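input
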Amino acid sequence: MKELPLGILILIIVLSLLLLAALIITVWAFIEPHILDVNTVRMSPAAKDPGFKKVSSSSLSNNKPGLRLFFFSDLHAELCMIKPERLISAIRDAHHNNPLDAVVFGGDICNSYTSKDKGLAYLKKISDACDELGIPFYGVTGNHDLEFDPSDRKCHFISVENEMIPFTSHATGKQIMLCGTDDSGRKKRVWNKVPPVPSDCVSVLLAHNPDSILHFEKDEHVDFMLSGHFHGGQLKLPFHLEFVKLRSGELPRQEVIEGVFEHEGISMFITRGLGCNALPIRLRSIPEASVVEIFV
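output
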């Protein structure tokens, strides 16, 4: 049998390795949505500098937080591989380690309203666990939730859209207002106003779409902001092509995609969320739920 030329042999080996790598990446993309990363996010008052600065909060770990929230977002129940029991276990562990003030949901119950029963059943289990633990469950809707009316409690969380829920800082005794904004969806978008939080209170805003931060009016008072929507990209591609070709958004073009950022006096956390949009795959964007500690 005639031996292959060295160049052809090298080409075959390279192509085989590339195919193997593609296979491994594909398999991993289907595995990753089943992994849950439960982390602790610590947020402190932001500097009033322009632009976006990504910050690390590890230096705050020895201080007493003013507020402790368990935050999850972007359920997309049809394509969420994280069972509610796993999330409930994480909530229980966080609450037993140091009591939580609230569990908060950042929107997108399901991909389509036709699958509402699956999404509502998931949230009902979270709500029941919160009732058992004596923790309030608050939330807002997302751009996929336009047909839901959260004000009637049928979504199983207490809506904070256009509402203000008062808390008192455990560290300073200062009043903290948890509030939220509605999401108008992907077409004919309207950026709804923030509830009128008194200037002497700390404002913690739930806003599904992080791009909201670019559209606040001067009279809107926001100190801290919790958002989702971007899924961490869901598929992290080279040069952020997932946002160029697959998704829209203003902040990703400034490389503001996930994590804690400071912007003009606002400290903002963007979570990767739990579920998937369109396909049950993630790549370098493991599903995330967070204990958010706010230091005020």
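quick obs: The chain has one domain: 35-294.
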